[in-house]
Amino acid sequence: MIIIREENPEDIEAIRKINEEAFGQPAEADIIDKLREACEDFLSLVAVQGEEVIGHIFFSPASIGGEGATLEVSGMGLAPMAVFPRCHGQGIGSLLIHTGIKMLKEKGYPFIIVLGYPEYYPRFGFERASRYGIHSQWSEVPDEAFMILILNKSAMVGASGVARYRKEFDDAM
Length: 173
What we know:
Layout: E1 2-6, H1 12-23, H2 27-38, E2 43-49, E3 52-65, E4 73-83, H3 92-106, E5 111-115, E6 127-128, E7 134-136, E8 146-150, H4 153-156, E9 161-164
Parallel strand pairs: 4-5, 7-9
Antiparallel strand pairs: 1-2, 2-3, 3-4, 3-9, 5-8, 6-8
Helix pairs in contact: 1-2
């Protein structure tokens, strides 16, 4: 049985190991560490099987606005998400995403952005952000890979422009 819960301090080493193994480098794990230090507001969930942490997802503050937009909206950015490669194909990533979406919606966030696989994230309701006049802060990002899930349509009326993750992500891009 897999349990999804918020991270505890004793999970931090396992979270680093999952991200390093899943991405084959320490950059994502380093970003998570920096975000934990810099952000008061984030959501970090782990997937636990037995006593072992086998998956992780991180949501941090993001904003949409700028470029002549009439409205600045704050929401969340999904990144990174990682599951031990030996555990792929068991639906762990889906459980993490569904739980995160539910929790963020309950907390009143109007949107979640993600830079990810266009074949994967639409199953959770993510759409191309460009449909809403929203574009990534990073110009090299392919349009189909930059997506948004709108959780509160009324809060998003008039929102457009550039979507920005926290500055801690800039070094990785």
